[in-house]
Amino acid sequence: MTETFDIVIVGAGITGCAIARQLARYDLSICVVEAANDIALGASKANGGLVHAGYDPAPGTVKAQVNARGCELYGTWAQELGFLFCRTGSMVLGFNDEDGAQLEQLRCNGLANGVPELSIVGPDRIHELEPRASADATCALWCPSTGFVDPFEVAIAALENAVANGVTFMRSAPVEAIEVAPGAGDGSGDGTARFTLVTPTGDVRCRYLINAAGNGAANISHMAGAEEFQMVWRQGNIVVLDKEPRALMPLYPVPTPVSKGVIVTGTVHGNTVITATAAVRDPGDTQTYAGDVNALLTGARKLVPDLDTRRVVSAFAGGRPVIQGTNDFFIGQSAVVPGLFQAAGIQSPGVASAPAIAERMEQVMRDAGVVLRERDDWNPIRRAPDDFDRAPLARKEELIESDPAWGQIVCRCETVPEAEIVAAIRRQPGAVSVEGVKRRCRAGMGRCQSGFCQSRVVAILTRELGCNPSEVLLEDAGSWLVEGPLKGVR
Amino acid sequence: MSTNVTETLQFNCTTCPSECLLTVEVERSADGAVVEVRSVTGNSCPRGDTFAHQELTCPMRVLTTTVAVSGGDEALLPVRTAEAIPLALHAQTMDLIRGLVVKAPIRMGDVVLENLLDTNINLIASMDIDPA
Amino acid sequence: MEEFKSSAIDCGVVEAVQTQAFDVVVIGGGPAGMAAALAAHKAGARVAIVEREQHLGGILRQCIHPGFGLSHFKQELTGPEYAQRFIDQVRATDITLFLDCMVIGIDSGEPTEDAAVHTVTLMSPASMLRLTGRAVILAMGCRERTRSEIKIPGSRPAGVFTAGLAQRYINIENLKPGSRAVILGSGDIGLIMARRCTLEGISVEGVYELMPYANGLRRNVKNCLDDFGIPLHLSTTVTRVIGHDRVEAVEVSRVDEHLAPIAGTERIVPCDTLLLSVGLIPENELSVAAGVELDPRTRGAVVDQSLQTGVSGIFACGNVLHVHDLADNVTTESERAGAAAAAWALDGGAGVGATGPGCQLTVSPAGIAGYALLGRITAVALTKLNFRVRRPVDAARVRILAGDEELFAGKVRPFKPSVMESFPLPAKVIQRALDLGVSEIVLSVDPVEEA
């Protein structure tokens, strides 16, 4: 059976999830179609989590318009959606007069883009703001509105909230073809579905189609017969270091024309992230490279000389979805296929911009004549799951009393009890893989990288999903972890 | 007429943690069979000499593995051969016990299989397993 | 209106967390914890063991291979047998066991005199608990170094396991982690897993070792690789993991004398599993949170002759202190820690090492010694020092130096990194250092030219 929706959003990355959450307040049936088996498995996964303030994009670009606004919206989004957000402020460190001139340029950019409270500071203030910043820094752009989030948590929280408000999530449904029925596609017609999306999990039909497919956006646009463009896989390696007593303030070098350079930042969980290299590589290449990792560690030590770069917890890579020929986002209704809305080329600063991209998409649709009628039962609040490690002692005690599984610690590095893992699997949309569990509750994310807890997480997934251990996946299809039993079988 | 060859081998004695490096002169027939262990040097005690002779004729090893458990608080019971058995029998033993299931409770030392492959050596439990 | 963050809600009304008092609280129920607890109990202390698993025994439960007990029990046992003997001994005492319990913090209260009582907070499936003790023994063991720590480039598919995790799947969970494995690292765990995989029908394509020598014990190279014809490739490492969803192959490369991969020597080895046996790291997060100072070389606590850390009343032993190669050595060391902790708890430390205010020496490694344990000497007594060399040498000697003066020189002999060495430091050497007025002595292992 083919289900029909008012809107189908292709892509459950941070962009698609934010748009779903934004539109869920209206009286529309919405489906998010995702090629992978979970949320945020593309560019949103391999991301440093920085909520850049918005002084970087060239004034007048779409990026410039959504970045500062997105950064501003994060405060409300974090509160409503119950995800962790630290607005620590940041500094771009300059080491000489030439850098100083560039910082001034950035400050002017920022002012034009609406970034609040930017100022150039000297060595004393640098040291006061971040004592671990390099003593060689002579000047810095101090930007109080910068912050950081856990990008998967944002995407998951947004989609959980959308689903709680009636949005359908279809996973493991890569779009193989899009059939477009002729017509104006402005919603003014008889209300029949204009688009049919063919996927191996089933077909879906809709009146409006939103392309938030990240690195797959060019392909979706092509399949719909809309704008032709090419994606460039601007690959970045990222390194995560072990926890520090205090999370570092984001420290940036002076940017280069293609990237913000190697940035060092704390994370919401107290780790340190070094992000990211930028090199054009083959599409889909998520390999880490020795040269990139070394460049990250070297770059980071330049900003934070006392950084213990031996304490690497994880290194990974992803591709920024860049549209060839432009460095800008493409957000708007297709000029070729009305009814198709594009949110393409959402590379950096995609995470920072996500709430504003969603806001802008809503406006674009409204302008295109899509009827957006507010529902009276919309609930903007998503209750965060209990995070045992962060819970105060009294709450811990209460949780254990409610269910002994809260006292059964499975992941020792991040102090994650069994009950938290079970909750991660049972939430909607829930985790279906070992990595999905990790992204939701951090089991396996710590310094031992699941060496102690992986087999236990596999056992819990086996029980909760009602499958055999050999069917449990690390991540997406094909990523089997173990074969069947060795003993007691013939 | 075939002639015997003498070769010199070096390997470590594994009888004790000293792990003496033994140098062994061995005479083999043309088909490779050991005719005579001519000399053993490098050992710091007589056990090294015994070990070298055994190693060249029929290397013996303790086999350790697991067998499936039913009704226990662990899925597997670690087991061992009570004494070393010929290394050549290890693969066959693994095949023999793959389908075996023992019932909990089990105590360390309990015999899991008697007289393994007619070696006169038992397969025994390495650990206690309590009922689930 | 719902609350935004349930985790931030403090419910206020909570019954007081239950507290139980002991003399010595041992954290960890593996070989170190059990030996320490038994020794403390024997010395008359009321002892508790906190263990996060449902069974005592620690990692020995999955080390089903033989090679244990040769020095302690004078017979060769398997890991589970070695553990079971201690479990039986512990069960025969009134040592209180807190199984399935994880310690979340150690509070040392006010350091008033030496009467401070430590409070250990732990979680159990039943409730939170607090245990108090004048002495706490850290015996949490170690963890395995991960792929990320050694920075193997490439993709991140399923099928890359630390050797210990694969060992758990095979020996405890009854699951097969793959069919065709490559093992990186020739430490004992890597070697033992090569044999274990082979016996269980997982073909081992080879063991690869970055260094120009095998890192494990000779017996393990012989019994685990040679017996099965598994090749050992020295001075070779994995330079890339290949495969999107599951490991499909690894790229291996030869390395030069600086351990850097040599371009042009890359070779693709098809496999579905990569096992990493690339080192162990003491798990000291709890210790650090309790204020214990670590030695950056061992990544374990800096301890004195009674194995007491820098925090009075907190002792450390076993792999949480420094990585051992033989469980028997863990037992011996832990028995010392247990006895010292009991003495501290019962006599207020009077009996511990006859600490004199005049004796404060630090011990540092030099030459090819990678570390020196103990870090601190506080008593003039025959003292056991442990060390490990960083590379194998055929001829070297241990020297004890104080400033420019050589206080002691050992006999020339070979040393191997795979062996944790033990060296008895005579009391008169310590006295001599004190007479010289130095604050530090150096344990140096220096290669000598062979005649």
Summarize, please.
The complex is a heterotrimer of chains A (490), B (132) and C (451). Chain A is an alpha+beta fold and 490 residues long.
Any overview of this molecule?
The complex is a heterotrimer of chains A (490), B (132) and C (451). The two termini of chain A are 42 Å apart. In chain A, strand 11 and strand 12 form a beta hairpin. Chain A has 490 residues and is an alpha+beta fold. With 132 residues, chain B is an alpha+beta fold. In chain B, the strands form three sheets. Chain B has a five-stranded mixed sheet with strand order 8-5-6-10-9, with no helix packed on it. A three-stranded antiparallel sheet of chain B has the order 1-2-3, with helices on one face. In chain B, strands 4-7 form a two-stranded antiparallel sheet. In chain C, helix 1 links the parallel strand 2 and strand 3. At the A-B interface, loops of A face strand 5 of B.
Number of domains of chain A: 3
Give the CATH level 1 class of the largest domain in chain B: Alpha Beta
- CATH top-level class of the largest domain in chain A: Alpha Beta
CATH topology of the largest domain in chain A: FAD/NAD(P)-binding domain
Structural class of chain B: alpha+beta
Give the biggest beta sheet of chain A.
Answer: 8 strands, mixed
The main sheet of chain B orders its strands as 8-5-6-10-9
Average pLDDT of chain A = 95
Question: What pattern of helices and strands is seen along the backbone of chain B?
Answer: EEEHEEEEHEEE
Instruction: Tell me the count of domains of chain B.
Output: 2
Distance between the termini of chain B: 67 Å
Could you name the ranges of chain A where pLDDT drops below 50 across 5 or more consecutive residues?
A: none
The number of helical runs of chain B is 2
Query: What percentage of residues of chain B falls in helices of 4 or more residues?
Result: 10-25%
Cα shape of chain B = elongated
Instruction: Report, as a whole number of angstroms, the end-to-end distance of chain A.
Output: 42 Å
Biggest β-sheet strands, sense, barrel of chain B:
5 strands, mixed
What is CATH's topology name of the largest domain in chain B? CPE0013-like fold
- Specify the CATH homologous superfamily of the largest domain in chain A: FAD/NAD(P)-binding domain
What does the secondary structure layout of this molecule look like, with pairings?
The complex is a heterotrimer of chains A (490), B (132) and C (451).
Chain A: E1 3-10, H1 14-23, E2 30-33, E3 50-51, H2 62-81, E4 85-86, E5 90-94, H3 97-113, E6 119-121, H4 123-129, E7 139-143, E8 147-149, H5 151-164, E9 168-170, E10 177-180, E11 195-198, E12 204-211, H6 217-223, E13 231-241, E14 251-252, E15 263-266, E16 272-275, E17 279-280, H7 290-303, E18 312-323, E19 330-333, E20 340-344, H8 350-367, H9 393-402, E21 409-411, E22 416-417, H10 418-426, H11 434-441, H12 454-465, E23 483-485
Parallel strand pairs in A: 1-2, 1-12, 2-9, 5-14, 12-20
Antiparallel strand pairs in A: 3-8, 4-8, 5-7, 6-7, 10-11, 11-12, 13-16, 13-17, 13-18, 15-16, 19-20, 21-22
Helix pairs in contact in A: 1-5, 1-8, 2-8, 10-11, 10-12
Chain B: E1 5-12, E2 21-28, E3 34-41, H1 46-57, E4 60-61, E5 64-70, E6 76-81, E7 85-86, H2 90-97, E8 101-103, E9 111-113, E10 123-125
Parallel strand pairs in B: 5-8
Antiparallel strand pairs in B: 1-2, 2-3, 4-7, 5-6, 6-10, 9-10
Chain C: E1 18-21, E2 24-27, H1 31-42, E3 47-50, E4 66-68, E5 77-78, H2 79-91, E6 96-98, E7 102-107, E8 118-123, E9 128-133, E10 135-138, E11 142-144, H3 147-150, E12 160-162, H4 163-171, E13 175-176, E14 180-184, H5 188-199, E15 203-208, H6 218-225, E16 232-233, E17 236-242, E18 249-254, E19 267-270, E20 273-276, E21 280-282, H7 285-289, E22 314-316, H8 327-347, E23 361-367, E24 369-373, E25 376-377, E26 383-389, E27 393-402, E28 405-409, E29 413-415, E30 421-425, H9 427-436, E31 440-447
Parallel strand pairs in C: 1-9, 2-3, 2-10, 3-6, 10-22, 12-20, 14-15, 14-20, 15-16, 23-31
Antiparallel strand pairs in C: 4-5, 7-8, 8-9, 11-21, 17-18, 18-19, 23-25, 24-26, 26-30, 27-28, 27-29, 27-31
Helix pairs in contact in C: 1-2, 1-8, 4-5, 5-6
